[in-house]
Model the fold of this input.
Amino acid sequence: VQLQAFGGGLVQAGGSLRLSCVASTRTFSRYLMGWFRQAPGKEREFVAAINCSTGNTYYADSVTGRFTISRDNAKNTVYLQMNSLKPEDSAVYYCAAKFTGYYSDPKSFPYWGQGTQVTVSS
Done:
């Protein structure tokens, strides 16, 4: 499956952005879709994930209550709505896909998009 992420940009602290990730697959509803981020000099970290079949969602503690992951199976698209953004949210955001398994380990995801830059100014 090929993934294409977009929607990043520059925003002031407290602002909002919505990221989108489109998957080229006929079996989108079978996937677990995740968002990860990587800041310069840091490891890639889990942000949020959604089971496209059940709709179950999972979040990192650092974004709970501020970010919302959702999906539209008809459009093969997963979204990440980011509100109340903080400078520490600045990173390249990646979407990823897998069929099953643990949702927060980036090493377990075989499919990745190209990343989109999110910069939050203070």
